[in-house]
Specification:
CATH topology of the largest domain: Immunoglobulin-like
CATH superfamily of the largest domain: Immunoglobulins
Number of strands: 9
CATH architecture of the largest domain: Sandwich
Number of helices: 4
Number of domains: 2
Structural class: alpha+beta
Shape: rod-shaped
Length: 277
Amino acid sequence: MLLNSLLLLAATAQASVLTLHAPRVTIYDSNGEGIRTEVLKLVEKPKIPLAVGLTDSLKLVFQIIEEGDTSGKGVQPLQTFLRFYDPETGEEGIQPLRVTPAGKSKFELNMAKPPLSIPPTTSTPLQVTLIIGAHKHTPLKIELFDLVLPESHPVAQHPDEASFHLLPAIHHTFRAPQKVPPRPISALFAALTLSPWAVLIALWIRSQVFPSVPHLFSPSILPFTASLGAFELLLFWYWVDLKLGQVLLYGGVLGVVTIFTGKTALASIGARRVARK
C-alpha cells in the first residue's frame, strides 16, 4: 500500500514538470523568405547568436506541454514572458506572450516596428529567456538564444534637457565684516551725543541749589525739555524700526515744535531777569 502511494506521488511529481515541444525560431528578410531557422534545444542555446537586420523579422513558435506527455495535449500556464537582457548595460525588457488553451504560442519581432519591451541595443547580443509560471506546475525558465539587433539610435535631446543636468555648486561669498571706528573715537562721539543731557541735568541740579535759576520743569520750560526728549525717542525708534524718510518727516515736525518751545523758554528766562532788576 505504501509502495503504491509512493509510486503515485512520483508519477504526480513527474507530470507537474513543464517543457517545450518543437520550439523553433525563424528569421525572414523583407520579402518574407526565410534566412535562418533554428530548432531550439532546451539543454543549450545556439552557439552562434541570431542576427536580425533593419528590414528583417523574427518569428518564435513553441508549444507548452507536460514533460513525458506524448498525447500532444498542451498546457495553458498562468503567465508566460520573454525576457530580453543586455549583460553589458544591465538593461532588460519583458514581453508577455499569449498562450492558447492548447499550449501554443508565438512571438513575432518586426524591426520596422519593434515592441517597446526591447531595451536599447548595443553591439552586445541580447540574452533571450523564456519564463513560464503556473499554479499546478513547476515554474520553467529556459535560455533560448542570443539575439543581435541593430544598435539603437541616440535619443533626440529635449530642448529643456539642459535644465535638468547637475549644475555647478553655488559658493556664497559673504560680505566683509563692517568696519567700526576705534573705541576712543566711538566713546568721544557718544559723549558728544549725550552732552546736551549732561548740561540739562547740571542746570536742573543748579536750579535745586539756587532758586533764582529757572527750574527745568517749570510750566514755561517743560515743553522745551519734553521736545528734546522726543528727539531722543525718535532716534531710538529710527534705530529699531523707522526708515530715513520717516525720521526726516517726524524730525521736521519736532524741529518746528522745538523752535517755538525754545523761544517760549528763552522769553520766560528773559522776563524773570527783567523782573529781578
